[in-house]
């Protein structure tokens, strides 16, 4: 039986929502702060299949205009005039021009940055969708409402830390949970080892932190060991054994015991994961000298061992920095695009080679988009941006959303070519959560701003 086909326990659902509402009153800054018991009641079922969600975060605020480039003659000329020192030549975009199954109205066309050429075959195979103008919103917002400040807006717009946090959690910097981690709260109990539900290959990220789910951090080489335990300490196996006992044995002091528990979990998880990955050889070749590709290669290796680890639902996080292109954009951004294109292309092929393309969905995210108007040799902090979703379950070869008008002071511009988003991160999250098997009711508890949007599923997932 598929996860979606299992009827929920209505009494448990009502109890879950009552507890969530009570916690909302007690903690208005985090209305989704829910106990593990309540989450367990709402998701008192286990997934019988495997699905994984992979977030690729581009730190610094990716320049969307040189990522998804206006390609029809009129739009490209408007784009070129707005950023004469930054615009990519139209002739250089012919090989990456996108041919959607349903053409955009008015003859509008887009092309990918040349460095993203490895993604064109994925798009053409209907396995990649392009999200037009998505970003943080509290509710649907018009330009007039933004100008008048007559509706709630995401706090501290155009701030790196706050918008990174808002993308990942729906709260500014200081948030304690992210929507990936909150998804993990729902699914951890259904996995053979809950520790491997939320995995980051890129350090600590609020996106993967749940109310009960704890992100497990690995490196590009795999599990990160505890020094002195993985190998003989001072050349002595007995010393290593003694050290392991010392740092993992139960304690009477509450805080000391919790520290020992976390350490013991780390040691045991490292041993289990290292053993599982020891014999994994991927059939796919990943590019070398590409940090993002190395992270995604590790994700692919972890997915390859999903059965050994007892995983049914997993959420992964990888990232690449360097996107704060206030200057030297024309020099640096093409290299970043090539890194992203080669990494994502190899990872998608790995999911095909592993036979899990339909079960793994990857999406890009970033602090914000950037201004359409150049600041000489770069662009400044913006708001809405273009992003990609790819995987075998994606209803691809399509653009999702409304193409923004390429114009300074136009209907989608709140200043300097900053795009006012027409799709919210919450709607993206809701669409992906639906694919994972989260009910519409539970989504509203996980992502409270979603209730402000009449369209909660953007329709790009099978």
TrEMBL record:
Listed PROSITE patterns: TAT
Database matches in InterPro entries: DUF1501, TAT_signal
Alphabetical list of Pfam families matching this protein: DUF1501
Name this polypeptide is given: DUF1501 domain-containing protein
Species in which this protein is naturally found: Ramlibacter pallidus
């Amino acid at each position: 039986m598929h996860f979606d086909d299992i009827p929920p326990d209505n009494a448990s659902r009502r109890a879950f929502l009552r507890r969530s509402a009570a916690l909302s009153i007690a903690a208005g800054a985090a209305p989704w702060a829910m106990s593990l018991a309540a989450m367990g009641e709402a998701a008192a079922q286990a997934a019988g299949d495997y699905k994984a969600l992979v977030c690729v975060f581009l730190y610094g605020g990716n320049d969307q205009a040189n990522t998804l480039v206006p390609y029809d003659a009129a739009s490209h000329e408007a784009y070129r005039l707005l950023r004469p020192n930054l615009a990519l030549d139209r002739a250089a975009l012919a090989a990456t021009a996108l041919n959607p199954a349903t053409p955009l109205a008015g003859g509008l066309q887009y092309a990918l940055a040349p460095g993203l050429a490895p993604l064109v075959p994925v798009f053409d195979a209907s396995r990649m969708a392009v999200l037009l103008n998505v970003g943080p919103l509290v509710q649907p917002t018009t330009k007039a409402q933004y100008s008048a400040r007559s509706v709630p807006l995401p706090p501290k717009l155009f701030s790196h830390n706050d918008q990174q946090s808002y993308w990942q959690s729906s709260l500014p910097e200081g948030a304690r949970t992210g929507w990936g981690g909150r998804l993990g709260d729902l699914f951890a109990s259904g996995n053979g080892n809950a520790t491997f539900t939320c995995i980051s290959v890129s350090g600590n990220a609020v996106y993967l932190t749940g109310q009960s789910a704890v992100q497990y951090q690995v490196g590009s080489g795999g599990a990160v060991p505890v020094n002195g335990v993985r190998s003989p300490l001072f050349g002595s196996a007995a010393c290593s054994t003694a050290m392991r006992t010392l740092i993992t044995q139960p304690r009477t002091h509450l805080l000391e015991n919790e520290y020992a528990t976390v350490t013991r979990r780390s040691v045991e998880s490292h041993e289990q994961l290292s053993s599982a990955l020891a014999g994994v050889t991927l059939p796919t070749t990943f590019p070398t000298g590409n940090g993002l590709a190395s992270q995604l290669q590790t994700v692919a290796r972890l997915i390859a061992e999903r059965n050994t680890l007892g995983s049914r639902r997993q959420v992964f996080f990888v990232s690449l920095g360097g996107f704060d292109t206030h200057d030297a954009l024309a020099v640096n951004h093409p290299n970043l695009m090539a890194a992203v294109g080669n990494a994502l292309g190899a990872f998608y092929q790995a999911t095909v080679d592993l036979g899990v393309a339909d079960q793994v969905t990857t999406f890009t995210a970033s602090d914000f988009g950037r201004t359409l108007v150049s600041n000489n040799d770069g662009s400044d902090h913006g708001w809405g941006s273009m992003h990609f979703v790819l995987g075998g379950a994606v209803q691809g070869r399509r653009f999702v959303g409304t193409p923004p008008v390429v114009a300074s002071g136009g209907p989608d511009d709140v200043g300097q070519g900053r795009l006012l988003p027409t799709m919210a991160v919450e709607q993206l999250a809701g669409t992906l959560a639906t694919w994972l098997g989260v009910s519409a009711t539970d989504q509203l508890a996980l992502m409270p701003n979603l209730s402000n949007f009449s369209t909660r599923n953007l329709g790009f997932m099978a």
